UniProtKB/TrEMBL annotation:
Pfam families: PhzC-PhzF (PF02567). This is PhzF family phenazine biosynthesis protein. InterPro entries: Phenazine_PhzF-like (IPR003719).
Amino acid sequence: MSDYDVLRVFCGPKGGYGNELGVIREGSVLPDRADRQELAAELGFSETVFVDDPERGVIDIYTPTLRLPFAGHPCVGTAWLLDVPELVTPAGVVGARLDGEFSWIEARAEWAPPRTLRQYATAAEVDALRVPPPGEWIYAWAWEDEAAGRVRARAFPGRGDGIDEDEATGAAAILLTDRLGRALNITQGAGSQLLTAPQPGGWVEVGGEAAGAAVTRRGGTPRPGP
Protein backbone atom coordinates (compact mmCIF):
# COMPACT_ATOMS: atom_id res chain seq x y z
CA MET A 1 0.00 0.00 0.00
CA SER A 2 1.36 3.42 -0.95
CA ASP A 3 1.54 6.42 1.36
CA TYR A 4 -1.46 8.69 1.63
CA ASP A 5 -1.91 12.41 2.14
CA VAL A 6 -3.78 13.93 5.05
CA LEU A 7 -5.32 17.33 4.35
CA ARG A 8 -7.42 19.78 6.29
CA VAL A 9 -10.08 21.40 4.13
CA PHE A 10 -12.15 24.54 4.83
CA CYS A 11 -9.72 25.84 7.45
CA GLY A 12 -10.68 28.84 9.57
CA PRO A 13 -9.47 32.41 8.94
CA LYS A 14 -6.20 31.83 10.87
CA GLY A 15 -5.52 28.42 9.32
CA GLY A 16 -6.99 26.32 12.12
CA TYR A 17 -9.83 23.83 12.17
CA GLY A 18 -10.86 22.31 8.83
CA ASN A 19 -12.12 18.81 8.06
CA GLU A 20 -9.52 16.07 7.66
CA LEU A 21 -9.34 14.22 4.35
CA GLY A 22 -7.35 11.18 3.30
CA VAL A 23 -6.10 11.03 -0.30
CA ILE A 24 -4.49 7.98 -1.89
CA ARG A 25 -2.73 9.45 -4.92
CA GLU A 26 -2.00 6.05 -6.47
CA GLY A 27 -5.49 4.61 -6.53
CA SER A 28 -4.41 1.95 -9.02
CA VAL A 29 -2.70 0.03 -6.19
CA LEU A 30 -6.15 -0.71 -4.75
CA PRO A 31 -8.58 -1.01 -7.70
CA ASP A 32 -11.25 -3.19 -6.04
CA ARG A 33 -14.16 -1.26 -4.49
CA ALA A 34 -14.45 -3.63 -1.54
CA ASP A 35 -10.77 -3.12 -0.73
CA ARG A 36 -11.17 0.65 -1.01
CA GLN A 37 -14.14 0.57 1.31
CA GLU A 38 -12.19 -1.48 3.82
CA LEU A 39 -9.28 0.97 3.77
CA ALA A 40 -11.63 3.97 4.10
CA ALA A 41 -13.13 2.36 7.21
CA GLU A 42 -9.65 1.64 8.57
CA LEU A 43 -8.43 5.21 8.06
CA GLY A 44 -11.58 6.63 9.65
CA PHE A 45 -11.75 9.98 7.87
CA SER A 46 -15.19 11.38 7.06
CA GLU A 47 -14.11 10.79 3.43
CA THR A 48 -11.17 9.14 1.72
CA VAL A 49 -10.33 9.80 -1.94
CA PHE A 50 -8.67 7.38 -4.37
CA VAL A 51 -7.08 9.13 -7.34
CA ASP A 52 -7.42 6.95 -10.44
CA ASP A 53 -5.92 9.42 -12.93
CA PRO A 54 -4.03 12.41 -11.45
CA GLU A 55 -3.63 14.21 -14.79
CA ARG A 56 -7.34 14.04 -15.69
CA GLY A 57 -8.48 14.36 -12.08
CA VAL A 58 -10.44 11.10 -11.98
CA ILE A 59 -11.34 10.33 -8.37
CA ASP A 60 -13.37 7.85 -6.30
CA ILE A 61 -14.78 8.91 -2.89
CA TYR A 62 -15.62 6.79 0.17
CA THR A 63 -16.92 7.39 3.68
CA PRO A 64 -16.11 4.72 6.30
CA THR A 65 -19.25 2.84 5.23
CA LEU A 66 -20.22 3.81 1.67
CA ARG A 67 -19.10 5.08 -1.72
CA LEU A 68 -20.23 8.58 -2.76
CA PRO A 69 -20.72 9.81 -6.33
CA PHE A 70 -19.81 13.34 -5.19
CA ALA A 71 -18.77 15.13 -2.00
CA GLY A 72 -17.65 18.71 -1.49
CA HIS A 73 -14.75 18.70 0.95
CA PRO A 74 -13.00 15.77 -0.83
CA CYS A 75 -13.23 17.60 -4.14
CA VAL A 76 -12.00 20.92 -2.75
CA GLY A 77 -9.06 19.25 -1.01
CA THR A 78 -8.10 16.95 -3.89
CA ALA A 79 -8.31 19.78 -6.44
CA TRP A 80 -5.92 21.78 -4.24
CA LEU A 81 -3.55 18.84 -3.86
CA LEU A 82 -3.46 17.88 -7.55
CA ASP A 83 -3.73 21.46 -8.90
CA VAL A 84 -6.03 20.41 -11.76
CA PRO A 85 -8.69 22.45 -13.62
CA GLU A 86 -11.37 19.79 -13.11
CA LEU A 87 -12.18 16.56 -11.32
CA VAL A 88 -14.05 13.64 -12.84
CA THR A 89 -16.47 12.05 -10.36
CA PRO A 90 -19.23 9.47 -10.92
CA ALA A 91 -21.75 12.32 -10.53
CA GLY A 92 -20.16 14.52 -13.20
CA VAL A 93 -17.23 16.78 -14.06
CA VAL A 94 -16.42 19.22 -11.26
CA GLY A 95 -14.77 22.49 -12.25
CA ALA A 96 -11.84 23.53 -10.05
CA ARG A 97 -9.68 26.61 -9.58
CA LEU A 98 -7.17 28.04 -7.13
CA ASP A 99 -7.47 31.65 -6.01
CA GLY A 100 -4.64 32.62 -3.69
CA GLU A 101 -4.99 30.54 -0.53
CA PHE A 102 -8.45 29.32 -1.49
CA SER A 103 -9.43 26.25 -3.50
CA TRP A 104 -12.77 26.37 -5.30
CA ILE A 105 -14.98 23.82 -7.02
CA GLU A 106 -18.13 24.23 -9.08
CA ALA A 107 -20.81 21.55 -8.87
CA ARG A 108 -24.57 21.01 -9.05
CA ALA A 109 -26.90 20.68 -6.08
CA GLU A 110 -28.50 17.53 -7.50
CA TRP A 111 -25.13 15.77 -7.25
CA ALA A 112 -25.10 16.13 -3.46
CA PRO A 113 -26.25 13.14 -1.39
CA PRO A 114 -29.58 13.69 0.41
CA ARG A 115 -29.39 15.92 3.48
CA THR A 116 -32.04 17.38 5.76
CA LEU A 117 -31.45 21.16 5.95
CA ARG A 118 -32.87 22.18 9.33
CA GLN A 119 -33.04 25.89 10.14
CA TYR A 120 -32.89 27.22 13.70
CA ALA A 121 -33.81 30.67 14.96
CA THR A 122 -30.39 31.60 16.33
CA ALA A 123 -26.76 30.56 16.07
CA ALA A 124 -26.81 29.89 19.82
CA GLU A 125 -29.42 27.18 19.28
CA VAL A 126 -27.17 25.51 16.71
CA ASP A 127 -24.21 25.73 19.10
CA ALA A 128 -26.24 24.05 21.85
CA LEU A 129 -27.34 21.04 19.79
CA ARG A 130 -26.40 17.57 20.95
CA VAL A 131 -25.50 14.83 18.50
CA PRO A 132 -28.78 13.17 17.48
CA PRO A 133 -29.16 9.37 17.33
CA PRO A 134 -28.30 7.66 14.02
CA GLY A 135 -30.90 8.16 11.32
CA GLU A 136 -31.21 11.05 8.91
CA TRP A 137 -28.31 13.22 7.72
CA ILE A 138 -28.96 16.65 9.32
CA TYR A 139 -27.43 19.99 8.39
CA ALA A 140 -28.41 22.35 11.20
CA TRP A 141 -28.04 26.03 10.41
CA ALA A 142 -29.04 29.54 11.45
CA TRP A 143 -28.34 33.06 10.33
CA GLU A 144 -25.57 34.87 12.20
CA ASP A 145 -26.05 37.93 10.01
CA GLU A 146 -28.64 37.46 7.27
CA ALA A 147 -27.91 40.75 5.52
CA ALA A 148 -24.23 39.80 5.20
CA GLY A 149 -24.96 36.17 4.28
CA ARG A 150 -23.18 34.82 7.37
CA VAL A 151 -24.39 31.39 8.52
CA ARG A 152 -23.65 29.19 11.55
CA ALA A 153 -23.93 25.48 10.78
CA ARG A 154 -23.26 22.01 12.17
CA ALA A 155 -23.54 18.67 10.38
CA PHE A 156 -24.64 15.31 11.80
CA PRO A 157 -24.24 12.45 9.28
CA GLY A 158 -26.31 10.01 11.35
CA ARG A 159 -24.66 6.96 9.77
CA GLY A 160 -23.43 5.35 12.97
CA ASP A 161 -19.94 4.92 11.49
CA GLY A 162 -17.98 6.83 14.12
CA ILE A 163 -18.35 10.25 12.44
CA ASP A 164 -20.94 11.76 14.80
CA GLU A 165 -20.37 15.32 13.58
CA ASP A 166 -18.76 16.41 10.33
CA GLU A 167 -16.51 19.42 10.77
CA ALA A 168 -17.05 20.87 7.27
CA THR A 169 -19.33 19.66 4.49
CA GLY A 170 -19.16 21.22 1.05
CA ALA A 171 -22.09 19.27 -0.42
CA ALA A 172 -24.47 20.48 2.29
CA ALA A 173 -23.21 24.05 1.78
CA ILE A 174 -23.98 23.68 -1.92
CA LEU A 175 -27.52 22.48 -1.13
CA LEU A 176 -28.12 25.39 1.24
CA THR A 177 -26.76 27.91 -1.27
CA ASP A 178 -28.96 26.48 -4.00
CA ARG A 179 -32.01 26.67 -1.74
CA LEU A 180 -31.36 30.25 -0.59
CA GLY A 181 -30.11 31.48 -3.99
CA ARG A 182 -27.37 33.68 -2.56
CA ALA A 183 -23.69 33.72 -1.63
CA LEU A 184 -22.90 32.50 1.88
CA ASN A 185 -20.07 32.70 4.39
CA ILE A 186 -20.53 29.62 6.59
CA THR A 187 -18.86 28.89 9.91
CA GLN A 188 -19.27 25.19 10.59
CA GLY A 189 -18.26 22.81 13.36
CA ALA A 190 -15.57 24.06 15.74
CA GLY A 191 -14.53 26.91 13.44
CA SER A 192 -14.20 25.86 9.80
CA GLN A 193 -15.06 28.36 7.06
CA LEU A 194 -16.83 27.70 3.76
CA LEU A 195 -17.57 30.33 1.10
CA THR A 196 -20.23 29.74 -1.56
CA ALA A 197 -21.83 31.50 -4.49
CA PRO A 198 -24.59 30.50 -6.94
CA GLN A 199 -23.50 30.48 -10.57
CA PRO A 200 -25.45 30.62 -13.87
CA GLY A 201 -27.13 27.49 -15.17
CA GLY A 202 -27.78 25.85 -11.80
CA TRP A 203 -24.14 25.56 -10.74
CA VAL A 204 -22.86 26.45 -7.27
CA GLU A 205 -19.31 27.33 -6.33
CA VAL A 206 -17.89 26.40 -2.92
CA GLY A 207 -14.41 27.13 -1.67
CA GLY A 208 -12.12 27.38 1.29
CA GLU A 209 -8.59 27.05 2.50
CA ALA A 210 -6.80 23.70 2.42
CA ALA A 211 -3.83 23.07 4.69
CA GLY A 212 -0.66 21.23 3.66
CA ALA A 213 -0.47 17.48 3.45
CA ALA A 214 1.00 15.18 6.06
CA VAL A 215 2.00 11.74 4.83
CA THR A 216 1.69 8.51 6.78
CA ARG A 217 2.39 4.94 5.80
CA ARG A 218 -0.38 2.41 6.32
CA GLY A 219 0.59 -0.01 9.03
CA GLY A 220 3.09 2.43 10.53
CA THR A 221 2.61 4.88 13.32
CA PRO A 222 -0.87 6.36 13.91
CA ARG A 223 -1.81 9.10 11.48
CA PRO A 224 -0.66 12.54 12.61
CA GLY A 225 -2.82 15.58 13.02
CA PRO A 226 -2.11 18.21 10.37
